[in-house]
């Protein structure tokens, strides 16, 4: 199990292999939730979820993981080899390319910055493998929220592609692009923290402007 600490001070994230049977009921609630529409399993039965992830567990080029936040299930992550799964014939794969999907568990009490922390943890897990040179994603072209999230961690959109189930935005993130995005995010947080501290000090001193 790999562990990372959230740069946003949101706790500790860990990733473990998914158990297709033991975790199926939990996943069923996630993938059929209205907020998970882009996962395209809205009408899935429990048995459908079990079969889907048993097939992934048996696949040579596809893996699924359960993400934990402070020890509690919080997200689903899939890793795949795009030379063999999902993108065969749709782009020219390079050595070190790794495909990724992720789904954050739906909640009625969202925490600011949580999804950003999750995708950062996912990317850190993928790049922890020295063989990974570039992460590839193909979200639905209409999923604007995930496009913005992807770009925030370093993904660069290349072009739209037609998949059997959707029109997708093919995007890539190299190790260097991800590391640069992490540095930028840290700088933004530090600037915001310094501004808040300065404001608090001014308030305490009764400064008027």
**How many DSSP H or I helices?**
5
- Biggest sheet features: 8 strands, mixed
Could you tell me the radius of gyration in angstroms?
19 Å
The helix-and-strand class reads alpha+beta
Given as residue ranges, the uncertain stretches (5+ residues, pLDDT < 50) are none
Shape label: globular
Order of SSEs: EEHHEEEHEHEEH
Helix content: 25-40%
Tell me the total number of β-strands. Answer: 8
Give the averaged pLDDT, no decimals.
90
Distance between the termini: 52 Å
Secondary structure topology:
Layout: E1 2-5, E2 12-17, H1 24-31, H2 46-58, E3 62-69, E4 72-80, E5 97-104, H3 114-127, E6 134-137, H4 144-152, E7 156-162, E8 167-174, H5 175-205
Parallel strand pairs: 5-6
Antiparallel strand pairs: 1-2, 2-3, 3-4, 4-5, 6-8, 7-8
Helix pairs in contact: 1-2
Task: Give structural notes.
The protein has helices spanning 24-31, 46-58, 114-127, 144-152, 175-205; strands at 2-5, 12-17, 62-69, 72-80, 97-104, 134-137, 156-162, 167-174. It is α+β, with helices and mostly antiparallel strands and 209 residues long. Helix 3 (114-127) links the parallel strand 5 (97-104) and strand 6. The longest helix is centred in the last third of the chain and has 31 residues, at 175-205. 36% of the residues lie in helices and 26% in strands. The chain has five helices and eight strands. The protein has an eight-stranded mixed sheet, with helices on both faces. The chain starts with a strand and ends with a helix.
């Amino acid at each position: 199990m790999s562990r990372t600490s959230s740069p946003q001070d949101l706790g500790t994230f860990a990733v473990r292999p998914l158990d297709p049977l033991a975790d199926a009921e939990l996943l069923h609630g996630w993938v059929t939730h209205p907020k998970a529409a882009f996962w395209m399993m809205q009408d899935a039965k429990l048995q459908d979820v079990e079969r889907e992830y048993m097939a992934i567990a048996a696949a040579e080029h596809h893996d699924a993981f359960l993400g934990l936040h402070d020890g509690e299930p919080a997200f689903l992550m899939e890793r795949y080899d795009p030379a063999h799964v999902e993108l065969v014939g749709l782009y020219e794969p390079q050595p070190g390319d790794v495909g990724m999907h992720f789904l954050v568990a739906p909640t009625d009490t969202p925490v600011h910055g949580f999804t950003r922390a999750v995708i950062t943890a996912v990317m850190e897990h993928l790049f922890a493998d020295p063989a990974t040179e570039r992460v590839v994603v193909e979200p639905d072209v209409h999923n604007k929220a995930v496009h913005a999230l992807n770009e925030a961690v370093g993904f660069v959109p290349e072009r739209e592609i037609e998949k059997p189930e959707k029109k997708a935005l093919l995007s890539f993130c190299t190790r260097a692009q991800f590391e640069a995005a992490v540095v930028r995010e840290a700088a933004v947080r530090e600037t915001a923290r310094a501004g808040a501290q300065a404001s608090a000090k001014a308030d305490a001193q009764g400064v008027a402007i």
